[in-house]
Amino acid sequence: MRQFKTESKKLLDLMINSIYTNKEIFLRELISNASDAVDKLNFKSLSDSSIQVDQGDLAIRVSFDKDARTLTVSDNGIGMTAEDLEKNLGTIAHSGSQEFKQENADHQGNDVDIIGQFGVGFYSAFMVASKVRVVSRAFGEDAAHVWESDGLEGYTIEEGERACHGTDVILTIRENIPGENGEPGESYDTYLSEWGLKDLIKRYSNYVRYPVQMMVTKSREKDKPDDAGEDYTPEYEDYQELETVNSMTPIWKKRSSDVSDEDYNEFYKSTFHDFEDPARKVSFHAEGTLEYDALLFIPSRAPFDLYSKDYEKGLALYSSNVLIMDKCADLLPDYYNFVRGVVDSQDISLNISRETLQQNRQLKAIAKRVEKRVTSELEKMRDEDREAYETFFENFGRGLKFGIYSSYGMKADELADLLLFWSARENKMVTLAEYAAAMPEGQKAIYYAAGDDRTRLSKMPVVKSVLDRGYDVLLLTTDVDEFTFQAMRGYTAKNMPKLYEDDAAREAAAKAVADGAEPETEDRFLELKNVATGDLDLATEDEKKDAEEASKEHEDLFGAMKDALGDKVEKVAVSAHLTDAPACITTEGPLSLEMEKVLARGPEADAGTMPKTQRVLELNAKHPVFDKLVAAQEAGDTSKIELYAGLLYDQALLVEGILPADPVAFAQSVCELM
User: Angle, nearest 10°, between helix axes 194-204 and 26-47?
Assistant: First the structure.
């Protein structure tokens, strides 16, 4: 018995029980080692004309014996001598593959794709095996040698037999562990079943560049006997056939011109378990200090759990065609969590288990490029296929808005131009840039109204009054919309017609354009304003003057109405912008009525600490109802003023989609008035 050339027992225990978190990756590691061995032989044949190898015969074979509880991974690669076995398997953390890569770094090119780096992947076999036997014959050697160990103290190396060059790694799979005291046991039988092994190969090693073959059981119909009657029932028999399990060449490493849309769609649907074709595909190859391939898909529909806490974002991360992480969350920002796809790079620095990453800097560089490509593709869809983009936005737009809100507006520059909102004037979805381009001269803000229903919002008095003045209003109906606008504060519209400070400058610019000059443009910051706030400043000077005079003249009336309403409102005032409606509710401060409603539906609603809006009851001094209020005040009829104040306040709330605090009292007041 030879001893491992390290603190063997401690280090092996670390290898088997600590480094790897998922037992099933042992097969990935063994197939990767086999691929490296085949690659080494292939490389030698390309660099040494005296070595003749038929590349079509290079392969990896996986087989199992359920009765003997053995699993074998075989290759016809470079093989190992006794010295190689001693050096590579007797010395933990010595990587023959890494050594080979360093020795041939200047000559490899694209003809070799060595995977191994750390020299520990082989030992992952002991997570599932009670004994490992390695039979290897080096290329050009007549003798084979056998390395054997139970993974505890040491190993033996003896002469053996193997028909040709290559290596067999034979695992004696552990016995199942029964559960105790209600705790589940552990089954190792998956590693001794055809379907279990095929699943692991397809999941982790599907794109290893050499065929991974297995004998699989298939069924076929027996020949019909000559003497069979008309009532003959077909009989079937099972038979064994050698099958290549893996796909080998990954679709993301092929040129886009060599892959059809149908092939991309089929890969997407089968890999990411969707039954619809993707809306968009993005494929690119990056070179430089960090080389990688990426294949990204934008789905046609949102998965049912997209907005649940259990949803996991991320791209599949491969290194040299071997799956490292099924969902690498660091490759996608949260607002692009719907994107699915693959990133494959041999340059990323992995940790020793190849299950997680060692350097975040490389991931950040890839993630930044991925984000830019997704943004670019979405902009292209928005501009070239508006119908498809609106469908996309209906499915995933909420996440883009939340990306701005959750970043406190820091991502507004990247995401604002991807947002769509309903235009009350155009009766269609528009971008903020399209809204700004259609603004009349002199408009200095983007106006919006927030609620839960587009039809109701379009009929609100405050919305109608803004529309009547020639300004469009965006109707926001998603719960995150107004929070997003609050985080943005404003929108910078690009290439807007330049505004001039005085008539002389305006006339000079007009003359220059008449003489053939290009019209001057500028980037203009537009504030985002809720039409339900009291600071719109849309009234004309005459309207402001009339409102101010009415406020002074009927100061006592407003005071009496404020007393009647109590702390329901901050004040009662004359509106300078209402046209048809008798009254409306506006707010002061950052919290709007719609935001208050959204917060009231949240998990903190019952905590008693919810913020409240500062409500203002605005009256239309030119409406007949106002005359009734003035008459009641002049008659000293305080009860009627209380009745009218309550009715006007409650009906203004109903217009906002808010139920009165006491619906029964409201109904009684209406009956009393009738």
Answer: 60
Mean pLDDT by 10 residues, the chain (674 residues): 58 61 86 91 82 86 96 95 87 50 48 46 88 94 93 87 95 92 87 95 90 94 85 90 91 88 91 91 90 94 84 89 86 94 84 51 90 96 96 95 93 95 96 95 91 89 90 94 92 88 81 84 91 79 85 90 91 84 87 82 62 87 90 89 90 85 79 76
- 95 labelled as ligand-binding? yes
Say whether 297 counts as a known binding-site residue: no
Q: Name the residue ranges covered by the structural domains of the chain.
A: 2-216, 251-384, 408-530, 541-673
Has 319 been labeled as part of a binding site? no
337 in a known ligand binding site:
no
- CATH code that applies to domain 541-673: 1.20.120.790
Q: Is 257 annotated as a binding residue?
A: no
Q: Is 117 annotated as a binding residue?
A: yes
pLDDT value for 232: 86
Q: Is 109 part of any known ligand binding site?
A: no
Asked whether the beta carbons of 113 and 206 are under 8 A apart, the reply is no
Q: What dihedral do alpha carbons 622, 624, 630, 636 form, nearest 10°?
A: -170
Domain 251-384 has CATH 3.30.230.80: yes
Beta strands in 517-665 (DSSP E): 521-530, 571-574, 583-588, 614-619
110 among annotated binding-site residues: no
The answer to whether the annotation marks 76 as part of a ligand binding site is no
Say whether 167 counts as a known binding-site residue: yes
Tell me whether residue 24 is annotated as binding. no
